Amino acid sequence: MIEFNDKTYTKEDLKNILINLGLKKGDKLVVSSELFKLGKIIGDKNTFLDEIISIFYEILGSDGDLIMPTFTYSFCKNLVYDNLNSKSTVGALGEYFRHKSGVIRTDDPIFSFAIRSKNPEIYLRDCDSCFGKGSVYDVLREKDGKFLAFGDASKGWTFYLYAEEMAGVSYRFFKDFSGKIIDRKGVEKEKTIKYYVRHLDRNSILDKQKQIDMLKKNKNYNYAKFAGGDMALIDLRQYFEIFVKTVKMDENILLKEAGERI
To answer: Which of 174, 159, 175, 173 is nearest to 244 (CA)?
Structure first.
């Protein structure tokens, strides 16, 4: 599967690590992946990607949901969002996964997700805000979903965008983005969607390490190394509750210090 520092890591090795992290049958899981850090792929790239996906399927089972970001940022770039043909800009695994049999992609023209579920319709609501009520992350919070940063534990943390919007932080504001989408059925239509964007003229950048420290303090940060990379598994309902409670007390407490680099 993977070679790193003269050691071979197998499919079974990865499966055991994920189970030890706390992933189990029936979980609703969103995976953000950074595969380049893991090491050298043994064999064909698509076979490697299939192996990773099959591991998630095996652990989650038929009652579990597997979700991956396939963000295109289309409306931010004044582009048409084509559900079937607009490529993901956030990693090879999500782009490969969205083409798999039984996987459906959401119609969000900025932050789309690819989803494999027995009940995908719960994630396919037509929302007027990228991370608002009815969005994929809103459903995951309701369903006690989990987030896995896979390959690089410091990357892919977009759930905070949902938490910030629900908390109504003042360092962000709603901005409308409009354009054309071609939905999963091939129907072309106009759409306007809200994105809770940062105020660029003030301190508005979250500090990742402060979030991690917050999660560790609340025993909601399960971490493991794998090959050349690492991963972290987080309970999203707990993350949401402690995040909102924290920023309601002081909405600046999780932000980077003024002048600190991104």
So the answer is: 159
Q: Which long-range contacts (CB under 8 A, 24 or more apart) does 89-93 make?
A: 90/32, 90/156, 91/32, 91/33, 91/34, 91/35, 92/33, 92/35, 92/45, 92/49, 93/31, 93/33, 93/35, 93/49, 93/52, 93/53, 93/68, 93/150
Q: Give the closest residue to 175 by CA, choosing from 159, 191, 157, 199.
A: 199
Q: For 86, which DSSP code?
A: S
Report which residue type is found at 105. R
Look at residue 261 and tell me whether its pLDDT is greater than 80: no
Please give the order of strands across the beta sheet that includes 188-198.
Answer: 81-82, 172-182, 188-198
**What are the angstrom distances between the C-alpha of 212 and each of 27, 160, 209, 221?**
22, 12, 5, 7
Cα–Cα distance measured from residue 2 to residue 8, given in angstroms and rounded to the nearest whole number: 6
Strands of 166-217 (E only): list them: 172-182, 188-198
pLDDT band at 257 (very low <50, low <70, confident <90, very high): confident
CA–CA dist 35, 52 (Å, integer): 10
Decide if 156 contacts 238 (C-beta within 8 A): no
Which residue is it, tokens 């905070």? Answer: 160
Tokens in use for 245?
């409670």
pLDDT tens for residues 9-29?
A: 999 999 999 999 999 999 999
CA distance 16 to 231: 13
The pair of structure tokens assigned to 161 is 């965008």
